[in-house]
Design a protein that fits this description.
It is found in: Cellular thylakoid lumen. Helix content is 26%, strand content 27%. By secondary structure, it is α+β, with helices and mostly antiparallel strands. The chain folds into three domains: 161 residues, Transcription Regulator spoIIAA; 87 residues, Pdz3 Domain, CATH 2.30.42.10; 187 residues, 2-enoyl-CoA Hydratase, Chain A, domain 1 (Alpha-Beta Complex). The longest helix is centred in the first third of the chain and has 15 residues.
């Protein structure tokens, strides 16, 4: 089942954004961390155009994607306080706004057939209408983009676009879930709850379908509308109706400020010897450093192999996924990005792996985007054995464009493939050894009996230990 969310971009909390200069490319990279986005944003500033390279989900947050100040800061990032002048607001008529959006899709959309839509005819249809306000233009733009049948490519009015922006406080606020739209049923679906957040603690699970928010049906609702309903001040409550395996469940969740520590690690004694266990909860800005520190610490303790736990990891920064993969992989391809011309941009290993010891990766249906880049790359290169259940399945690249009146659009411009050419977004990653848990087992393990996680009472971990023992022989 395919699912939608703004690729490496979207969730439901406020996030910190950090800008730095990429010394290799000279491009500015803005990192959107936390649960608002599961993405890194490679931004090339051309006027008010910012190109985001993302691969994941929708954020429900009070976060804002701030305009980049000039000149580009290297160590810190502060949102621009620039306001749009009246003359700028009047620069474009409603028809010009519609045509601007049409042109962006025409030039950049990943599918040159526009998903078999006659895009020229669409332009004629909507420019032949009369418009008395931008609100009428917004309605037509949404209708126009809907013809592409691509929930990732969408229009945001000025308020919705503002809601997408990130603030620099670094404080996360929300209930701690990533959501998206199922690309077949168009239902609002949970990508994954973030561990130790309010949504996680009440029992929200990956693949849950959100049918109502505070009593309002989500039928026909897009992710931006859901974001506006779910986010709110810490201490306030939101009511979600969830459909799980045909049964409806009610959850009342208290919003909170959330601090996420992306990495936990420990040495474990087992039948396979001393094992280095690393749990990576999210690919945030500091995740790569923390994983590196964990590996170095465990290497100093002379562990004989590793288990990397990516279960319920909804993704994060693209750069983190590449950097972390390089810690395990000495040579070989990591991921490919393919645009509408079929041109490929590849990320490869750099010969600086921190260890060559046996590796097992734990994955499940909550492992998404950046998690799938790492697990797919290490599986394809036969560097790791994957144990668990099939991953979520998403990986697209989008461009985010601001428009003259403060609104914006996101456009799918490319897709990710694993080194062997697998399409992450449509297929997900199948583990080498399947250990599937039912809903009761999942809730017992991740909610009621969390002290059993990463012990032999954890069926997936126990299998990973067994596999690791066989790899060492």
């Amino acid at each position: 089942m395919g699912t939608v969310a703004l690729p490496l971009l979207q969730i439901e909390m406020a996030i910190a954004s950090r800008a730095r200069l990429d010394t290799a490319t000279g491009q500015q990279k803005v990192h959107i961390d936390g649960t608002k986005t599961d993405s890194e944003v490679n931004i090339v500033s051309q006027g008010d155009t910012y190109t985001l390279l993302t691969n994941t989900s929708h954020s429900l947050a009070s976060a804002e994607l701030a305009k980049l100040p000039q000149p580009i800061p290297v160590q810190s990032f502060k949102p621009s306080t620039q306001t749009v002048s009246n003359s700028t607001l009047l620069k474009r008529s409603p028809k010009e706004l519609i045509d601007e959006v049409w042109q962006i899709i025409y030039r950049q959309y990943v599918d040159s057939s526009f998903n078999r839509v006659n895009w020229q005819a669409v332009r004629r249809e909507y420019l032949n209408k009369s418009y008395s306000s931008n609100q009428e233009a917004y309605k037509s733009i949404r209708e126009m983009l809907k013809k592409l049948n691509d929930p990732y490519t969408r229009f945001m009015d000025p308020q919705e676009f503002k809601n997408l922006q990130t603030e620099t406080s670094g404080e996360l606020t929300g209930i701690g879930i990533q959501i998206g739209l199922d690309d077949k049923t168009k239902q609002l679906i949970v990508i994954a709850p973030i561990e130790d957040t309010p949504a996680f603690k009440v029992g929200i699970l990956a693949k849950d379908i959100i049918t109502n928010i505070n009593g309002k049906s989500t039928k026909g609702m897009d992710t931006d509308q859901a974001v506006s309903l779910i986010r709110g001040e810490p201490g306030t409550k939101v009511n979600l109706t969830i459909l799980r395996n045909g049964q409806k469940k009610q959850f009342t969740i208290t919003r909170a400020r959330i601090e996420i520590h992306p990495v936990e690690f420990s040495q474990k004694q087992s039948s396979a010897g001393k094992i280095g266990y690393i749990r990576l909860k999210q690919f945030s800005a500091n995740a790569a450093k923390e994983v590196r520190d964990a590996i170095k610490n465990l290497e100093s303790k002379q562990v004989t192999g590793y288990i990397l736990d990516l279960r319920n990891n909804p993704g994060g920064l693209f750069s983190s996924s590449v950097e972390i993969t390089r810690m395990w992989l000495n040579q070989g391809a990591i991921v490919s990005m393919i645009d509408r011309q079929g041109e490929v941009e590849r990320e490869v290993a750099n010969g600086r792996a921190l260890t060559n010891k046996p590796l097992v990766i734990l994955v499940d249906q909550g492992s998404a985007s950046a998690s799938e880049i790492v697990s797919g790359a290490l599986q394809d290169n036969k560097r790791a054995v994957l144990v668990g259940s099939k991953t979520f399945g998403k990986g697209l690249v989008q461009s985010v464009r601001s428009l003259d009146d403060g609104s914006g659009i996101t456009v799918t411009i490319a897709k990710y493939h694993t080194p062997s050419g697998r399409d992450i977004n449509k297929q997900g990653i199948n583990p080498d050894i399947a250990v599937n848990l039912n809903d009761k087992q999942l809730q017992n393990l991740w909610l009621q009996e969390r002290d059993k996680i990463a012990t032999l009472a954890d069926p997936q971990f126990a299998k990973a230990v067994q596999v690791l023992g066989s790899l060492k022989r």
